[in-house]
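Before relying on records like the one below, remember that each one covers exactly one chain. Contacts with other chains, cofactors or solvent are not represented anywhere in the record.
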Amino acid sequence: MQIPYHDKRAVRNVLGFLAEYKPDEIASVGDEVDFPQISRWTRGMAGEYKGDLQAHCDAGKRVLASLRAVHDGPIHVSRSNHMDRPLTYVRTRAPGLMGLKALEVPSLLDFEKYGITYHEEPYEIAPGWLLAHGDEGGSSRAPGGTALALARRWGYSVVCGHTHKLGIQHEHMTVNSRLVRERFGFEVGNLMDFKSAGYLKAGSGNWNQGFGILYVDKGRVTPAPIFIKPNGTFVVEGRTYGAKTA
C-alpha cells in the first residue's frame, strides 16, 4: 500500500471483499507504510523536515484496524525495504537509539494490538511456498520473474511483492512423464495510487494493482492473481467485487 500513497478506493474494495470472502488467513508482502521522511531519497531535503511521520504511522494503523475489523484469523506481515527505513535511519543517523523497541516497526504500527505476526525472514506460508518481500535478489522487468528467480535460488515456490507487478511464472519438471518438481514465482501487485508515485517519469510503469490468493487443498497449492481494474473492480471466482450498486 505504501501509505499514505495508497489507493483508498482499492483498499476499501479489498477490505469489503475480505469481509465477505472470509479467507483462512491474510498475509502481506510488506510496505504497509512508506516512511518517505526517513528515506535516503529525501535526506537533507524538505521532506525530511516535514514532521508528519506520526501522521503517516497513524494512517497506517487506521488501515490495519480496518483489516482486523473484517478478519478474525491470522494476519502476517513481511519485512520490506520501505518498512526497514526506521531501523536504517536509526542505525545510520542515531545509532545510540539502536535496540529501542519503540522505534521498531511492530511498535510504530501497533502490530501486537492488532494481532499481527511480523516476519523478518521469508517464511513458509503454504506447503512448499515461501512468502518474502521480493527485494532479496535482483529485479526482473517481467511480472513474476523476480519471484521465480528467488524460487530457483531457494528451492521453493515464492510469493512476493516489491516490484509492484502482478503475475505468475512457473518452472516445472517431469521425468518419465511424471511431475517431479513444481515451482512458481508469484508477484501480487500493489494497492498504490499511481499518481502519488512522483518518481515515475511521465507516470509510466509496468505496474498492476491487485492481490493474490493461494488455494491450499490437501497440500496442493494453486496460485491465483487478482487484477484490479482502473475503476476499482476485480473478479474472484466469477464474481465482480467493488462495483457500486444502485
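The first strand starts at residue 26 and ends at 28.
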